[in-house]
Design a protein that fits this description.
The protein is an all-beta fold. Helix content is about 0%, strand content about 60%. It has no helices and 18 strands. The strands form 4 sheets. Strands 1, 3, 6, 7 and 9 form a 5-stranded antiparallel β-sheet that branches. A hairpin with a 2-residue loop joins strand 4 and strand 5.
Length: about 210
């Protein structure tokens, strides 16, 4: 299926705690989110939350009056029947583009690592593939607390992100990481505060990589 508009509109006013579903990935399909734009068409600050399959990629983030935020979500994955949901204070226009593909397609993005929140242990949240190399594509690390929090993200024992401070209700997004995780190596992520950072990591399994 070609790239399509998955949602365009002004979601009903809702809270960041109970966001409204605006898109559901079709049963038996996989949706690759390409881009999300958020436009505040009001004269006051507004806040919004975006969740993918229940995992926050933006949480209670403030957008200034008449401002636009472009979330480069290229490669983020929704599996069969998973939802994209938005919580917003009011006066926001949301537009989402993406691609719906069959789950059987080889070399398509997969979910590598996601959890409701990171622990403070380097081994608490990790991923390992013992069969094939994996090309890590997109990384989102969302701070769901009202205080700055340090976060680390390692591949194969070496830092990609080391104790990086993420501001309150902010998200660190890497849309085109394109780093190869060698078969048997680990992806590891941890935070300075338990339960503060929500990770969402996608990649492509490289079968028979020579």
């Amino acid at each position: 299926m070609p790239i399509a508009v998955l949602y365009a509109g002004a979601p009903s006013m809702n809270t960041h705690v109970f966001p409204t579903n605006v898109y559901t990935s079709p049963v038996g399909k996989k949706t690759i989110i390409k881009s999300i734009t958020i436009n505040n068409n009001s004269s006051t600050d507004q806040s919004f939350t975006i969740r993918m399959a229940g995992y926050s990629i933006v949480y209670n983030h403030v957008i200034k009056p008449n401002d636009t935020i472009i979330l480069p979500a290229s490669g983020f994955v929704l599996l069969s029947n998973e939802t994209l949901s938005v919580g917003n204070s009011s006066s926001l226009y949301i537009r989402v583009t993406g691609e719906v593909i069959d789950t059987s397609i080889l070399l398509s993005p997969i979910v590598i690592l996601r959890s409701t929140a990171l622990t403070t242990s380097a081994t608490g949240t990790q991923y390992r593939n013992t069969s094939n190399d994996v090309l890590i594509k997109s990384v989102s690390l969302c701070n769901i607390t009202a205080s700055p929090v340090a976060v680390s993200f390692y591949m194969g024992g070496f830092g990609i992100i080391s104790a990086k401070m993420i501001n309150r209700y902010d998200t660190l997004t890497i849309p085109f990481l394109d780093q190869l995780l060698i078969k048997g190596d680990y992806v590891q992520a941890w935070a300075g505060v338990e339960g503060a950072i929500v990770p969402y990591v996608t990649g492509i399994e490289v079968v028979n990589n020579a």
